[in-house]
From TrEMBL:
PROSITE patterns attached to this UniProt entry: RIESKE, TAT
Pfam short name (any one): Rieske
Cofactor(s) required, per the database record: [2Fe-2S] cluster
SUPFAM superfamilies given in the database record: ISP domain
Superkingdom of the organism of origin: Bacteria
Organism ancestry: Bacteria, Pseudomonadati, Bacteroidota, Sphingobacteriia, Sphingobacteriales
The protein, known as: Rieske (2Fe-2S) protein
């Protein structure tokens, strides 16, 4: 009888420790992403990264092409929102310039109209000149420009967090 009681108590102790151990592991696993989310903005604020957007030979001189790339701040859970787009121009003199595809009014994607040499925003009629400055409509400022470099035959764009437009009443 006493032996059975000891075995039962020993089993209870084992199960209690096992449950506590499992609970601790579960709490640790749940806590890692929460701590990451809390401290990540402090670590990554304003981070910029060079992203390869293609080979030099992919961009004909005189052309303005839509490019897509991953943002500088790539959160694991961001999914498709971690991607950005820009309009990359290979100028006749060999230089590159790149404009954010997001309108500076409310962020709609602008499109390049080659014949008119204008960037047009379909949302509220914003229009930008070839150099990204505002031609008409509500955009409060020029299209954001990214730095571009050629590195080992690749064209790279220096991504940055997209500056949000301040809406004033
Ligand atoms: S979002 Fe482009 S004009 Fe409003």
């Amino acid at each position: 009888m006493k032996q059975e009681k000891e075995i039962s108590e020993s089993r209870r102790n084992f199960l209690m420790k096992f449950s506590l151990g499992l609970g601790g592991i579960a709490a640790l696993l749940a806590g890692i992403p929460i701590l990451g989310a809390l401290f990540q903005p402090l670590i990554k604020k304003g981070e910029q990264k060079w992203r390869v957007v293609g080979k030099l030979t992919d961009f004909a001189k005189g052309e303005t092409q839509l490019i897509k790339f991953r943002n500088a701040e790539e959160d694991a859970w961001a999914g498709v929102s971690a991607k950005s787009a820009g309009w990359l121009r290979h100028k006749e003199n060999g230089e590159f310039e790149c404009f954010s595809a997001n309108c500076t009014h409310l962020g709609c994607p602008v499109r390049w109209e080659k014949d008119a040499e204008l960037f047009m925003c379909p949302c509220h009629g914003g229009v930008y000149y070839k150099d990204g400055t505002v031609a008409a409509g509500p955009p409060p400022k020029s299209l954001t420009q990214y730095s571009v470099r050629v590195n080992k035959g690749n064209v790279e764009v220096k991504t940055a967090p997209i500056p949000l437009t301040k809406i004033t009443a």
